[in-house]
């Protein structure tokens, strides 16, 4: 009986710890950017806003992955975020200035994207 109670207690503690560690969804604003081009654009707002749809969809750029670019840094997306970004670009009528809002959770220095607008 004591062992069963210990097991129940341990399960209760561990389950509450896992719930407490679930990160909350956050929102970030910035510009949709591919990783390859991000390195030469950090800190240059004119280059960031002028980054074109043509460049975003080129094989090398698209294959490098997408992320959110602020004036100060690039934050890559997870696999789902890359898919959402590719669809967003494909369906957008914009030719440049891909300002977006991203919702998701930061995991291991990447945004696990749940929504991209």
Percentage of helical residues?
40-55%
**For the residues shown, what is the average pLDDT?**
88
E-strand count: 5
What is the end-to-end distance? 55 Å
Taking all Cα atoms into account, the compactness measure Rg is: 19 Å
Q: What spatial order of strands do you see in the largest sheet?
A: 3-2-1-4-5
Derived from helix and strand composition plus strand pairing, the structural class reads alpha+beta
Uncertain segments are none
Proportion of beta-strand residues: 25-35%
Largest sheet: 5 strands, antiparallel
- SS field, number of helical segments: 6
Q: Specify the overall morphology.
A: globular
Task: Return the string of H and E elements.
Answer: HEHHHHEEHEE
Structural overview:
The structure is a single chain. It is built from six helices and five strands. The chain is α+β, with helices and mostly antiparallel strands. It has a five-stranded antiparallel β-sheet. The longest helix has 19 residues, at 2-20. The chain is globular.
Task: Give short descriptive properties of this protein.
117 residues, alpha+beta, five-stranded antiparallel β-sheet, globular
């Amino acid at each position: 009986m004591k062992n069963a109670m210990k097991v129940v207690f341990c399960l209760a503690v561990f389950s509450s710890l896992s719930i407490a560690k679930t990160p909350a969804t956050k929102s970030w604003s910035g510009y949709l950017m591919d990783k390859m081009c991000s390195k030469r654009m950090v800190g240059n707002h004119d280059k960031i806003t002028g980054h074109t749809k043509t460049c975003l969809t080129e094989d090398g750029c698209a294959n490098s992955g997408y992320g959110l670019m602020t004036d100060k840094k690039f934050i890559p997306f997870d696999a789902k975020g890359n898919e959402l970004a590719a669809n967003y670009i494909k369906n957008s009528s914009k030719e440049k200035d891909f300002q977006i809002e991203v919702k998701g959770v930061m995991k291991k220095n990447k945004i696990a994207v749940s929504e991209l607008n």
